[in-house]
């Protein structure tokens, strides 16, 4: 690009900004939110229509399209595959040309997951679902503690100064409650709320989901993903998500880009709302809020609390080793009491000691299956390796 052309483009942007400011009464750089337009089950036109709806209803931000060329007055960057669109999106975010982007099927690194926002059917209240896609941690309980922090970050960036937090009654909820209360006792400001049910407590029931009791509902990501789909599409039969704000921004330590996720089934209203959600997060300085919250949580010993929830270094090292299974044999003996997240590691621990084992699901939950004659030895080895293993399981 020649120097004269670059200067002309810069002058053109300045005059456009002045014109926008005169028209809207808002001076300064306007927030620009991108939208990739490939990948929807409802077609490119579904996304473009949503973008035009969002642009028409807002004076506080601009919409930029990234995808195949279409008839629209919106600024467009051409991309003809999802891969091209994501590459262009990242370039525009890194250059500051856009401040945030809404897209589909984007892969975040481990440690980053998304915080969705729904409208609850009981009382029409907005509620953050922490989290809905991505993986905060390979360890379930550690992930849920991080999810709570990510939810607080999203809510604060969205304008809620002291958001309430509830933990959905799923596996690991009590451990998460203990960890969050320890974090609070160490000085991190976390506002745990009470269930609407008579017995109270910060462990939330299904009723609390429907009513939107907390500002932030914490659970594992897979459960959160299901909740998003139910809340978004329960009025349509499931193939068209019509309610809510999408699956939200990817949040995690070191995550610099503001990227929000949509389902491929997201309809026009949800896409338009997701663009609004993105603009609000940019306005609320999501990146800075995240840095402040991570700093405050770490000051309250977050890292040490998380380490206490995961397996010790020795067990983790053993799980990462290449271990070959011993010769296969009949496994009619079963051992219960091992957490489902530890089951495969327990199998490998026995393989390493020469005992053939398989994982399974019994009538009371996850089980480890070994040869009937080796149950006693297997129990002893598992306990020595640090696994919580019960007696032989009889259904």
TrEMBL record:
It holds the Pfam family FA_synthesis. GO terms for biological process: fatty acid biosynthetic process. Keywords: Oxidoreductase. InterPro entries: FA_synthesis, Gly_reductase_pC_asu. Its EC number is 1.21.4.2. One of its GO terms (molecular function) is acyltransferase activity, transferring groups other than amino-acyl groups. SUPFAM superfamilies: Isocitrate/Isopropylmalate dehydrogenase-like. It comes from the Bacteria. The active site is at 363. This is Glycine reductase. The gene is grdD_2.
């Amino acid at each position: 690009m020649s120097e004269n052309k670059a200067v002309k483009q810069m002058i053109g942007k300045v005059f456009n900004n002045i014109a926008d400011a005169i028209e809207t009464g808002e001076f300064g750089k306007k927030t620009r939110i991108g939208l990739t337009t490939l990948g929807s089950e409802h077609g490119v036109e579904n996304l473009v229509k949503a973008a035009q709806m969002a642009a028409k209803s807002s004076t506080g931000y601009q919409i930029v399209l990234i995808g195949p060329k279409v008839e629209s007055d919106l600024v467009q960057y051409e991309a003809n595959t999802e891969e091209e669109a994501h590459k262009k999106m990242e370039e525009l975010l890194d250059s500051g040309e856009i401040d945030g982007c809404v897209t589909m099927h984007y892969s975040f690194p481990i440690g980053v997951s998304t915080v969705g926002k729904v409208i609850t059917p009981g009382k029409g209240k907005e509620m953050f679902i922490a989290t809905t896609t991505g993986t905060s941690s390979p360890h379930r309980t550690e992930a849920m503690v991080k999810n709570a922090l990510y939810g607080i970050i999203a809510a604060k960036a969205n304008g809620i100064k002291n958001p309430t937090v509830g933990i959905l009654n799923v596996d690991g909820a009590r451990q998460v409650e203990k960890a969050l209360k320890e974090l609070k006792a160490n000085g991190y400001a976390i506002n745990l709320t009470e269930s609407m049910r008579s017995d109270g407590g910060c462990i939330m029931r299904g009723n609390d989901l429907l009513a939107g009791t907390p500002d932030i509902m914490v659970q594992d990501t897979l459960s959160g993903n299901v909740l998003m789909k139910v809340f978004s599409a329960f009025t349509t039969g499931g193939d068209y998500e019509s309610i809510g704000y999408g699956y939200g921004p990817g949040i995690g330590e070191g995550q610099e880009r503001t990227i929000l996720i949509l389902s491929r089934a997201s309809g026009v209203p949800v896409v338009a709302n997701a663009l609004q959600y993105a603009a609000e997060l940019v306005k609320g300085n999501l990146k800075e809020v995240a840095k402040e919250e991570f700093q405050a949580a770490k000051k309250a010993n977050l890292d040490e609390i998380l380490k206490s929830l995961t397996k010790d270094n020795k067990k983790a090292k053993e799980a990462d080793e290449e271990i070959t299974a011993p010769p296969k044999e009949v496994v009619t003996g079963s051992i219960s009491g091992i957490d489902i997240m530890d089951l495969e590691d327990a199998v490998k621990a026995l393989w390493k000691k020469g005992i053939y084992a398989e994982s399974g699901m019994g009538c009371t939950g996850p089980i480890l299956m070994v040869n009937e004659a080796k149950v006693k030895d297997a129990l002893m080895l598992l306990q020595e390796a640090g696994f919580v293993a019960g007696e032989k399981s009889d259904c």
